[in-house]
């Protein structure tokens, strides 16, 4: 399904002042447009104040059949025809061509340039001729490395881009024949090449391959043809006799087929690699991996076969690694790292978009209302021309690439619209007599001609159209240029400007159709995300504006999902997080009263608020907002009220308001120990000790411990990354330290708090620095010992306890509070203590150590430092400690 909107992605348009009707044209980097007509190529400026002004012109060997530009290397390559022969030529250093009569250097590929000629080469355009054993049919330039792939009848030829270094200050661009890919049973009509990925298209077939540069199992490069897969057996496809059938009485029609991954090797197309054996290649390819094969069948119901059934517009679209959306601008001199790759091709009425990195997957299918003539894929849009319309469709490339770049994309932290979302047509713009199109940067180049009769570029019999043995199509010489044609440069508006229009347009769906509103806002979000993925081409001000729009779009999507009560309502949380909005700012955007005057809070908003309160954000809501949150949960999820009230963000809640809502829980049958503890905490906050005592006596100590385990924030809260005791914890320290220690121990045993966090909690609670150990912490350690923690933790626990006992004995430092357990309690409660040594009783009975605290520490010191210690080792340690204590006396 294709959604249709009426937006305005196209801005101004200018007419390119060509003298002859263009036969071929293409973009030339960010600032030029190449137009070929006859035996001449003109370059026009497409940026700045010189828009559409001629830049330079140069002659070609013959009429240009194909034209392509490579930004890497800044060269133009053309397939030219002269005297029924075709030639492949690359135009290098074309920017130095000031006038049409300027001198030009013509050289063969691999020709060594002598140092004395360096200054001449620096100031003039060079034409590099690349001889081929077969006539070239199509070309493609790698957008990353600038390598050139040429399609011939039975093979593909790869030329690597390289530079001849003349001296330290000057180098000459050149090419090097590096690989020949032999193809059997398919004749290329169009090809596309990007960083080792090769797409080949015939009239009804598409084949996508990946050239692998790493040898398998230590193999060396094979300088002779090496078959990567066998040809299809007769049982797998049509028979050889059928393939060779040449009778005009029959039409061979094969069934449609789609083969993905390794299965595509069964297509019957043989692929063979032949290396040229050159030693100084930058990249050597040893193997080929089949990724996709798709074959279409023509509709022969009308018994008329024409161009209406042919594929067109094959394209590989790379998206590069960007890092974080907020990362700094990359160094443009570094080679881009490929993140994801997409392949597009089209029938006259249907377009297909595949993702082909890591996995091969059909992402989107585009249905055109009219027969298409050409289509161009960009990271943001798919542009399609019919005979009279320029159409702009949305694409899902940025959504797929975002998931490739960030594995945590679909989580409670981050989100992105799904790849499976329906595509939409943003605009259908009327142009009379559209013939051809190309796209680069933010420009769309359109060739129009008023003459309704189109001259087909390829004509052949139905029999040969359906056969793989069909040779390449010959381009027909166009008639003499007539008046009524124009070449337009249509400028697309900035992503931020189109984003604003899409947001405004979404307001028409805001109340009645939430899903339609989400769809359009998702399109706006993906538009901005796609622009940010090419942030290396943006100025700092543009990037900052896009980042602001990105956050704003996340806020809009969060608003939509917060109003939903469906399986997708949870997406309100990650989108609000990505928006950078605070919880107070989100609550300020909420419509608290429905249209009918009732108060209804949808699941998306409740999900966001509850998770935000659980995450212990360093944000305190005002008393008014806190009261609204309590009211919201009282209506939507009353069982969550105790947890909500324990959040640090709810610190400013009025205790009387909180208690009134908690009492409603009691009357509604939701009474529990957690509700009781929450009421006690609120009573303590009000200073009502009588109410506090009444609530705390409602349950036994064991039940109260279970309540604290259910909600640890009654005792411990996180503020700026530190554990801070609550007012209730401080009060329990003074009145019920045993309950406090038992509760913290319960939290630790249930993995609600870590060991170091618990130690820090007691130190902060008792007001001690890192070097001082309060007795309450020692009580907690002894409680851990009684609780029989795993052996891994026992050794550290033994060491901490013994260190504290020895320190107090040596410093004659009594505990700051009364210990909760005596030595007798410890000996009776756990098996880590043995019998009392006789000399310990003698030492304690002396007048010098008659203090009970010292006696207790000596008894507890019998705890072994290590369980593996022998009896004699323990005796030596205790004897040395006792001598030290007596000496201190």
TrEMBL record:
Keyword Cytoplasm carried by entry: yes
Subcellular location: Cytoplasm
InterPro entries cross-referenced by the UniProt entry: HPS3, HPS3_C, HPS3_N
Keyword ATP-binding: no
Superkingdom of the organism of origin: Eukaryota
Residues in BLOC-2 complex member HPS3 C-terminal domain copies: 497-863
Residue ranges of every copy of the BLOC-2 complex member HPS3 N-terminal domain listed in the record: 3-478
Subunit structure: Component of the biogenesis of lysosome-related organelles complex-2 (or BLOC2) composed of HPS3, HPS5 and HPS6.
This protein's name: Hermansky-Pudlak syndrome 3 protein homolog
UniProt source species: Hipposideros armiger
Taxon lineage: Eukaryota, Metazoa, Chordata, Craniata, Vertebrata
